[in-house]
Design brief:
By secondary structure, the chain is an all-alpha fold. It has five helices and no strands. Helices cover 77% and strands 0% of the residues.
């Protein structure tokens, strides 16, 4: 609840303050934003898989942001849009993690529905003495 309140306050303050990012820093901001979003969504996936480790998250967050910033800086100095490589990489990883999270949530929902339908007796049938796991596999 506190996190949602913080997000709401941040959105309201962000809309109310007239702040614009200078065009020279737009590339850096976009790469940094995607690096952070990639790390957060990766942490959500790791938490769902029960593999979350704060040290891995924190170091990944910082190293992704630094590497993306370094690529953007180097690309600016060379006159090449190297930041696009970081944008594509982070974009692909974000969509892959979101797809995995979506599939996992759908499979958990379907398992829950299967358990609920297995627990409800069908009208006219005799109650079975089978354990719940056997009822699910028998259908």
């Amino acid at each position: 609840m506190i996190a949602l309140l913080g997000i709401l306050i941040g959105v309201v303050v962000g809309v109310m303050l007239p702040f614009q990012v200078p065009p020279a820093y737009a590339k850096y901001l976009s790469v940094s934003f995607l690096a952070g979003l990639d790390s957060v969504i990766g942490a959500v996936r790791a938490d769902i898989e029960d593999k979350y480790d704060f040290l891995v998250f924190a170091t990944g967050f910082v190293s992704n942001a630094l590497l993306a910033g370094a690529l953007t800086f180097l690309g600016d100095r060379l006159g090449v849009d190297l930041y696009l490589a970081a944008l594509v990489t982070f974009g692909v990883r974000i969509f892959e993690n979101l797809a995995w999270i979506r599939r996992d949530l759908i499979s958990k929902y379907r398992e829950k529905q299967a358990l609920q339908s297995a627990e409800m007796p069908v009208v006219g049938e005799e109650p079975s003495s089978l354990p719940l796991a056997d009822k699910i596999t028998a259908r």
